[in-house]
Design brief:
Layout: H1 2-7, H2 9-19, E1 22-23, E2 36-46, E3 49-61, E4 65-74, E5 78-90, E6 93-103, E7 109-114, E8 119-121, E9 129-130, E10 136-137, H3 140-151, E11 161-168, E12 171-187, E13 190-199, E14 209-215, E15 221-228, E16 234-244
Parallel strand pairs: 1-11, 10-11
Antiparallel strand pairs: 2-3, 2-16, 3-4, 4-5, 5-6, 6-7, 7-8, 8-9, 11-12, 12-13, 13-14, 14-15, 15-16
């Protein structure tokens, strides 16, 4: 069996899909959560400094479009990072059209999903990427993941993997999220049962690692998030309040 899979990679992909180990995003119907505002307590390690602050995710959506804003700040640095994603919603979930990133002491960077031209345009001299279908940006991918979990929760089991092409400020790359395990976390909302999902870069120290703790009892919203950059900077935030709109 292994010899056949190595010799014929397309058969390997089909075999993995049939075993339920890899899930193709374009075959999944998304179910985005209701519009809400999420407030977090934040801890960040930036440039060798450990600071505390707050984070906020503002999610607005109707049957056709969405807007997702993510802001973090500390008393020492002020605004630490700000991300904004907006676009359409269809049966597959989120379809981004624009992504904006603003980091500490850096100019804002925009990524445009040009649906008419069929390509993703990046800032600077990064060449455009031809849209194949299902692409996300670094913020929308989290909401797309939880939208898929809401649509088919029975498929989100430990060991299952979910793949996306993710656009960032320096181009795009393939991300694979793996469902790690179930964990019970203590939060301001009380003890919450969660599903730990993580994206780990293919090469250690090269790319952003993302750890997400999704809470099925809270619309599958992330009650904890941890972003670890290749340079060692890290931001972790834990939920304090969820307000539905």
């Amino acid at each position: 069996m292994m010899l056949i899979l190595k010799k014929f990679p397309m058969l390997a992909a089909g075999a993995l899909l049939s075993l339920g180990l890899v899930h193709a995003q374009d075959k999944t119907t998304g179910n985005p959560p209701p519009s809400s505002q999420l407030q977090y307590r934040l801890r960040a390690d930036v440039k060798g400094l450990s600071v505390e602050g707050s984070g906020q995710i503002d999610w607005q959506a109707d049957a056709k479009q969405y807007r997702l804003m993510f802001d973090t700040s500390t008393q020492l640095t002020g605004q630490l990072m700000s991300e904004k994603s907006e676009g359409a919603i269809d049966r597959s979930g989120l379809v981004p059209t624009n992504f904006l990133l603003k980091r500490l002491r850096k100019e804002p960077v925009a990524v445009v999903f040009d649906r008419r031209a069929g390509q993703i345009n990046f800032a600077g001299d990064v060449p455009p990427y031809k849209i194949q279908g299902g692409e996300q940006d670094r913020l929308s991918v989290i909401w797309q993941l939880l939208s898929m979990a809401r649509a088919r929760p029975g498929s989100f089991v430990p060991g299952s993997t979910w793949k996306f092409f993710v656009a960032g400020h320096r181009g795009g790359e393939s991300w694979t999220f793996q469902v790690k395990d179930k964990q019970r976390l203590r939060t301001s909302l009380g003890e919450v049962d969660t599903l730990h999902v993580a994206h780990v870069p293919g090469e250690p120290g090269n790319g952003r690692q993302v750890d997400i703790w999704l809470a099925p009892s809270q619309e599958w919203f992330p009650v904890r998030l941890r972003f670890t950059e290749s340079g060692g900077d890290a931001i972790e935030q834990t939920i304090e309040k969820i307000t539905k709109k």
